[in-house]
Amino acid sequence: MSLRESINKIRATIFDKVINYRIVKICGILVIILYLSFLIAGVIVASIFGPSGYSIIDNWISDLGGSPYTPAPYLYDIACIIAGSLTIPITYYMENLLLPIPQKNMRKFTRLRIRLTSSGFIFGLIGGLGYIGVGIFSENRSDILFGAELHGIMSELAFVGFVLSAFFMGWYILLYKTKIPKLLGLYGVVGPFTTIIVFLIESNPLWEWILLFSILAWIIPLALFVLIKKLKPER
Predict the structure, then answer these.
(1) Of the candidates 199, 118, 210, 200, the residue with the CA atom closest to the CA atom of residue 164
(2) Which of 41, 91, 116, 156 has CB atoms 3.0–4.6 Å from 172's, for a disulfide?
(3) Does the predicted model carry a pTM greater than 0.85?
(4) Nearest to 84 by CA among 124, 142, 141, 38
(5) Where are the domains of the chain?
């Protein structure tokens, strides 16, 4: 057995035993319900009970994790850790859905197809880990224990990771035959990527929130479509 065959066998085992459709279904449902619940609750609490009256127009997203802006910073911290943790299995599943492992016929999978799916997975993993880091190294703990720079780095990894994951997966959906709508693939390429460019130019709280919404507008419909259609890799 060659090294590639051994690696594929290990990855297939992980998929079958650890990250299969049932697990991804649970992760998808939980990330939508729990993440949105904690995020919305965090905004409401900060807006009503926060010392300065939190607003998505005037406050950065990370302010939800800071005591000067909200009496319950842990709500956003939990939301970040939940979202980051649960999107990692979904990202792995998407890679295997687009490019099944082990492949029946490697000849039909060109280098571009492999690179697009691999890039989508790698950047999705970076985004998930970055978002977990945002929750762990929140504004409160980051300033006290680690310095504000670490929190900023984690935020950048989360945003860039999720945006580029959508970009590469979107291109795959557009270029090749899949069961996922081309329109969703087009949004993955254009939506979050365009928004992050505008955010880098404008760099204000409202556009940071719009960037988050643009990423959610990719992840949530994609997860729902996979779950509703019960899409599984063809081996």
Answers:
(1) 118
(2) 116
(3) yes
(4) 124
(5) 3-229
